[in-house]
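sorry for the late reply, my laptop died twice this morning and i had to redo everyting from scratch. anyway the thing you sent over, i finally got around to it. pasting the sequence first so we're on the same page, its 167 residues, then the predicted structure underneath. double check i copied it right bc i was rushing
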Amino acid sequence: MTFLLGLLAGVILALVARALLTRALLIKLRRDISRLNAGDHGPLLAAFADDAVIRFNEGSHRFSGVHRDRAAIERFLREFTNAGIQGEIRTIWPSGPPWAMTLLVRFDDGATGADGEQLYANRTVLLARTRWGRIVEQEDFYVDTARIEAFDRRLTALGIPPLAAGD
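ok and here's the structure:
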């Protein structure tokens, strides 16, 4: 009987710990995205390992490609804020141990013009792999990738060019 009570207590403790970890991750990432929405990419950039990689939808747009290392990821995040994109984390699903987690994140993003017109909106699932709390790999999956290219064309028409190399 004592063994079963100990086992039950261990299972309950593990479930509670997992729920608390998920909640803590959600709070941290939402805070980082809030700062990104305000134009400060620093907190989110700090979540990436030095050798991290972001794989973003290939296409003829300013965000396209594989962004390797923190310098490339910083440029990617600056491009994101330069375009006026605002994002929101809807939910997060973690799996694996804390030192090697995989996260699925539902992320919705959009941009509104100076006149209040919606220029862009999309839904995304981000697949992130972590190592000891740092993101080492992220891949973004969009509901409609054509919207990204249309948004890029719209930004160019509004006089918002892509950042120049080295910016």
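The first helix runs from residue 2 to 37.
thats about all i looked at so far, will dig more tmrw
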